[in-house]
Structure formats: C-alpha cells, structure tokens
C-alpha cells in the first residue's frame, strides 16, 4: 500500500474515532447534566457561572479583555479575570452572545471540553506509540476516569477539568525530553502554557511532577546536555507565552495584601482522605475523590509485577504516581506542613489528577503486555464507558435534593458566590459587610455636596463641591488599575485602598468639579498582553513550520 492510500485509510479510521469521541462526550454527561432537563450543580458552579456571565456582559459592552468581573459582588467587581484566566471561558461567553442560556452554554462547553480531552489524549499517546489501539485505550481510560468525572459533576471544578485536557500534552513533552525525541520539547511549552491558563494550582502540581522526573533522571541530564538544553528551552519558551497571566497577577500581589496571601482558609491535614476509604469508594464507583475501579485494578497489578517492568519511563512514572497517591491521603504527614505554601492546594486529593494521568498512561502503554489481546482492551474501553454512565447516575442519586436543579433554576446567578476562600479580595475586606452594602457613595454629607452620581460597571461619575479635602468611598473593590479623571476647578486624588471600609476604592476631593473613576489597564498589563500575543504568533508559526516539514518529508520519502 503506498503512502497516499495508507493516509486515506488512516483518515477514514480517524473519522470513526472522532465520531465515537463525539458520542461519548455527550453520553458521559447525559445523566448528570441533561436528563429530564435537570443538572447537578456542583461545589464551584456558582463561581464559574459568574465568571462566564461577567465575561459575557463585558463583551456585550464592547470590553474584549476585561480585567475585573463586574457580575460578582453586586457589581462592586472582583479580579477573577486577573487571577483566574478567562481565556477558555470565552467559549461559553460567546455562546451567551449568540443567544444561548447560561445552562445551554455551560453544558455545551462541557461537551467541548470532553471532546478536546479525548482528542488531545489520543494524539499524545499516538505521538509515542504510533498505534491507534494504545491511543484509544489511553484516551478513553483517561477522559472517563473517575476523578475527572468528579471534577465535572460533584465538584464542578471547571479550571481543573480544563487542565485535565492539556496535561497529556504537557506530559508528552516531559516524556520526549527525558526518554524520547528531545527535539519535541515544544509539547511541554504548549501544554504547560494551556494548563496555566486553565488552572494555576494544576500547573504548580505539574511543575512538582517535572521536578520529580528531574531527580530520577539527574545523572542522565548531566551526561546528556542536549536533554537538559531541551528542558531549558521549554521553560524559557513558556515564560513569554504566559506573561499576560503572570505579570498582572504579580503586579496585583505587589500592590496590596489579598486574602489568598493572608491566613489559610483550609489546612491540608484536615482535608486528607483515608487510603482504605479511597479504595473502597473506587470499588463502589462513588462520587467522592478516588481513582476508580480500572486504575485501582492496574495499580495492584503493576505493584505486584513491578520488577518485570523493564522500561525506564514506565518505572519512573509508576513511582511518581505512587508518590502522588500517598500525597493525596492522610498517610503523608500533612500536619507538619500546615504552615507552608502547600496549603494553597487546599485539598490533598487534588494530586489524584496526576495519579490519574500517570496510571492511565502506564496502562495504555502496556509495558507488562497485559493488554496484548485487543478484545480485552476493547472490553476495558466498553467498561470505562459503562462506568462513566454509572458514575453520572450515582452522582445524581447521591446528590442532595437542592443540588439538582432545573435548567431554569440553573440560569439564576448569585453574585456573592466568589469561592469559599474569598482569595482575590483585599485582606481588609469584611465579606459579610459587602453582602449588605448598597451601591451608594460613602462620605460626610455635612462637609461635601455630591450630585449627579452615576455608577456603570467599573465606572463611577459624580459632581462634588467642598471647601476642604474630603474622603469619598466608592462601591468598587480596590485593585491596582483604577484611575480618576477630573474636570472643573476642583481636584481629585488618584484612587486608593480604603482599609477602614472593607477594601473599597476611595478618593479625596477638594473644591468644585466632576470626577470619573474607572478601571484602566496598567502599563505592565498592556506590555504583558502584547508580549504574549507576539510570543504566541512566533510560537504558532514555529509549530506550523514543523508540521509542514513533517508532512512534506512523509510524502516525498
């Protein structure tokens, strides 16, 4: 068979695989998000609905790159768009723009995430094995894994769910740098950048994942400088790609103290799971943090026959997966680390993300040749699909009555749901006070006269008249970037943080005039945006040139 016929045959098989992925992308969430037009809400759903709705409102008002989300906190604003990248939620926000409801936009977005995860996982494995069978195994086992389904249903952890889609891509880069074709380091840059834009905590966990590979391959890196250079290239390429995220975050953190940097809301030691309970929940396919039946079964098999594993990459990945499994339980002495930065992870079982990635890869690569019989492999694929449906129905059955709502109820927004940790509020903010605060200006009416007050999104305008310098507090949470524009004979100060009034924005005025306070991109925000855009253009051209060369060389050989 010549190459053109081979390519045509492969393409026809690939179309069938894509159709399968599309069907399962819908089937796997049907009973949790579509059946009877009722939907499981999940722990973080209100926060993410507000993110989507706020971006939609900003786009409707012509603001293409909003820094503050004004849907939160009764339009006092929340810097979720700075601290928690909006890049991927442009998809459901655009669905809202073309007329879809919040429910329809959210469910469609979940289906797209499912489909993207299937495809990325498939191609990541195919890049190593060049085999449809192993690639299909990995794609299905990974995408329909229990912990990932938990993120999609009971937890509604949209950021972590998005990170799941790109972890295989980043791991592909790690695999090639340490064990494969080191010239393919760019997969790590691409994958890591997309993980950072999805969920920062997942990116930090994956950085620890890479660090452990570096420890296990320390001598190899010293002896093979080309691999070390490839790792450095991946890191240095990633930095400008994600500068539009990190630079604004660091700028805000340098400008004031936020609750995320103050006393921890959770201690990891209080949230650690019991390993035995985790395994029992896996066997019962429960909607609690666990690795699921299939991964648990192969975990035991590879533990029993570990000495028979001859592949260095599989050995390393298995040991690292076991380490992260222990990190996710109370077997690890989390109490000793309560005062460290690790508390920012909040829940030890977040590390099951990496356990899922590692074990799914090991199973599908099949170093022990347990799945040489393709009928057995296809049975595991069918079993994974069945388990995903079972998980959705179990989640529905186990959920509290108030956590399963109609599509109409799901469309409702609760603007004060900003996450349990209240991370992006100024430290001085009293959250309970904000919930009862109106949107009026706060000032001394005996000392200053205020007329024609108008608040619109992140902008406040009013006219003032006073003989002395007076403090005016605005119904806007303070973040670096607020500016004041004054007209008339009076003077208005630059906006600043009023620590005495719940972290709101304040200015001082003197004389008679008109002032408008609004949010404007800082210089660093603008520079980082353009630096990232230019970096992405260059990086994309580089990737396209590699793709063209590979295709061209394939057909001319």
UniProtKB/TrEMBL annotation:
Q: Specify whether Transmembrane is a keyword of the entry.
A: yes
**Record's superkingdom?**
Bacteria
Asked whether the UniProt record includes Transmembrane among its keywords, one would answer: yes
Please give the start and end residues of each transmembrane region.
12-31, 76-95, 107-126, 132-150, 157-179, 185-216, 228-247, 287-305, 317-335, 347-364, 376-393, 527-548
Protein keywords: Membrane, Transmembrane, Transmembrane helix
**Pfam families named in the record:** YfhO
Q: Where is the signal peptide?
A: none
Question: What is the name of this protein?
Answer: YfhO family protein
